[in-house]
Amino acid sequence: METILIVDDEKNYLVVLEALLSPEGYEVITVDNAIDALRLIRESDIDLVITDMRMPGTSGMELLEESKKMKPELPVIMMTAYGTIEMAVEAMKKRAYDYITKPFRNEELKLTVQKALEAHRLLKENKRLRAALSERYRYGSIVGKSKPMIKIYDLIDKVALSKASVFITGPSGTGKELIAKAIHYSGSRKHGPF
Questions:
Q1: pLDDT band, residue 152 (cuts 50/70/90)
Q2: Runs of H (alpha helix) within 33-84
Q3: Is the peptide bond before 193 cis (omega within 30 degrees of 0)?
Q4: Which residue among 58, 89, 139, 191 sits deepest, i.e. has the most Cβ atoms within 10 Å of its Cβ?
Q5: Contact predicate 51/37, CB 8 Å
Q6: Are the C-beta atoms of 68 and 75 separated by less than 8 Å?
Q7: Mean pLDDT, to the nearest integer, of 49-78?
Q8: Which DSSP string corresponds to 4-17?
Q9: Which burial class, exposed, middle or buried, applies to 76 when counting CB atoms under 10 A from its CB (0-12, 13-18, 19+)?
């Protein structure tokens, strides 16, 4: 079950949003201030944040910035009754997933929530698959524990940290591609294409 954190200083919006999203199968947590929201984001497994822009104390924009520092992949939907194009642009520049004006249409909000959670699921899956690939090609396909192979492993580790291009030579069938993949997936290049 995916968890949605809703942050708004207006209690009636918290009640409405919880009543709207809970029947959709989401676990909904509501808080009325950004300080409690940041604590929950830090301590809990939150999948989506929906926050009001204007709140006493810490604003929704500050909440957006702080949540992105803690968990860059966490989608945040901004809501406001005082929307301007400038505010929307600023929120999007600060990596808000979307921007909704109050009063909102229920179906529009549900669709935005579904899209945000789907994007979050895809991002988490992509991260998991990249980690699995990285581990698989670390040395998993290379067999050998002899002294010459240990020297090659050390060389792979050294070269993987470099930004230099690497030219691998050798007879056909000696494992040049395995070495190339080990270098690629051991260094900072692993996030780019092989």
A1: confident
A2: 34-43, 60-70
A3: no
A4: 139
A5: yes
A6: no
A7: 91
A8: EEEE-S-HHHHHHH
A9: buried
Q: Which residue has the tokens 């709140």?
A: 55
Strand 48-52 with 27-31, pairing: unpaired
| Fold category of 3-129 in CATH | Rossmann fold (3.40.50)
C-beta separation of 51 from 34 below 8 A: yes
**Is pLDDT above 80 for 143?**
no
Q: Please give the Cα distance from 97 to 91 (Å, whole number).
A: 9
Q: Is the pLDDT of residue 85 over 70?
A: yes
DSSP codes of every residue in 84-138: -HHHHHHHHHTT-SEEEESSPPHHHHHHHHHHHHHHHHHHHHHHHHHHHHHHHHH
Question: What pLDDT is attached to residue 16?
Answer: 94
| Closest C-alpha among 16, 8, 93, 4 to residue 41 | 4
Report which of 127, 110, 189 is spatially closest to residue 156, judged by C-alpha positions.
Answer: 189
> Which residue type occupies 3?
T
The domain spans of the chain are: 3-129, 139-191
Residue 140 identity: G
- The token pair at 102 is 């109050």
For the segment 94-117, what is each residue's pLDDT rounded down to a tens digit? 899 998 988 889 999 999 999 999
pLDDT at 121 exceeding the cut of 90: yes
